[in-house]
Amino acid sequence: MSPHTLASTIGRIVRQLRHDRRTVGLIIVVPLLLLTLLYYMFDGGLLFDRIALVMLGIFPFIIMFLITSIAMLRERTSGTLERLFTTPVGKLDLLFGYGIAFGLVAAAQAAVAAGLAYWLFDLDTAGSAWLVILIAVANAVLGVALGLLCSAFARTEFQAVQFMPVVALPQILLCGLFVARDSMAGWLQVISDVLPLSYSVEALTEVGRHADPTGTMWRDLGIVVGAIILALVLGAATLRRRTA
Amino acid sequence: METAIEVSDLVINRGKREVLHGLTCTIPRGSITGLLGPSGSGKTTLMRAVVGVQLVASGRVSVLGEPAGSPALRHRIGYLTQAPSVYDDLTVRENARYFASLYKLGHADADAAIEAVGLGQAAHQLVANLSGGQRSRASLACAIVGRPEVLVLDEPTVGQDPVLRDDLWARFRTMAADGTTILVSSHVMDEANRCDRLLLIRDGHLIGDDTPAAIKTTAGTDDLDEAFLRIIRQQEKAAA
Question: Where is the ABC transporter domain (chain B) (predicted)?
């Protein structure tokens, strides 16, 4: 990995996105529309505070997972990846390039969505909005890392989009948003315990309840970062310079 | 003459099928070598092995004295894939600049490569909006931008108009004169005549390896297409 190659790879990925204005618009606007929907569904009550807070973490995860798995699949199918592997570019330049480029986009997305939730919809959390954005960005990068990994198992874009429900939905169902994790059946708890989104949702809930960052929150954030690294390492293993 | 690429007993499987069956050849430095053969004969597979992205069952490929695909070679080799492999959602200039940056080269080098393939007027256009021929030249610009010592070109002139094709071949000739080793595959026999040497491949076997003139003389015809045909017939007779 070289800082120079990494920087130009990040630049290239951001430039690709910039030429696709509609995608940029969707990335920024869709979470705002969904938050608005939630606000009116729950009349801005306590339930809105709880659910909107969790959604601020889930939107970036889903959106970045989708975008990354398609972008990486395009690299694989268009031949650009094959050509890149004949150049001095390193696997880590590519993996971190995608992680950082889409992480930056996710930071913008999370900041705008959090801005709307706090200022217009009076989202009430005991802890700081900055922590909410930090956890949202960690979730986005988790989405990027899992997207990079899953793209290796898809041959077509049709297949790639179908990994979204497979990877995201079980995590959303079991993260504690619908049923508290400690009141689930034992075997469901076990599954919930190994899914990274459970920890980022718990971290967000901690920010909602406590004025200062708690030990549980930092531990949860640490677990999410660990899951990101694990997914990136597995993703690196799927990037082969030589293929059949 | 010094050897740039050396292939010995190369066996490659794709899926369950063996596509190259113990192929051996050498390619001299600073020359243009044409790779000829029908579609499916193993041309692309051989090229992928030379640039080091092909899994090899057995045998050896060395490029500039190093095993193909070794990290030291990645600064010295350029590869044009058959289908244009550039980013559709970037402009021609952004593509060239990105590939230039991988070789630690700057904007001037990127612009020079764009001019070299005759895309100066279209440099600011998105690749997605280019014609097929322009797109493949954009891809070529990214292959030559690193000023490689070995340039592997998989059908670089498909879809180009005759004048441009002539310009591109003049460019390849200049590069070869400067010491670049070029391995180029083609379907067009008129292009084969412009090569210093030809490798004829059929069904994963090398059936001819000589200068275009010598191949024609041996086959006893002035026409390369006909020469290729006669060589195949002779071999089939020999095998039967």
Answer: 5-228
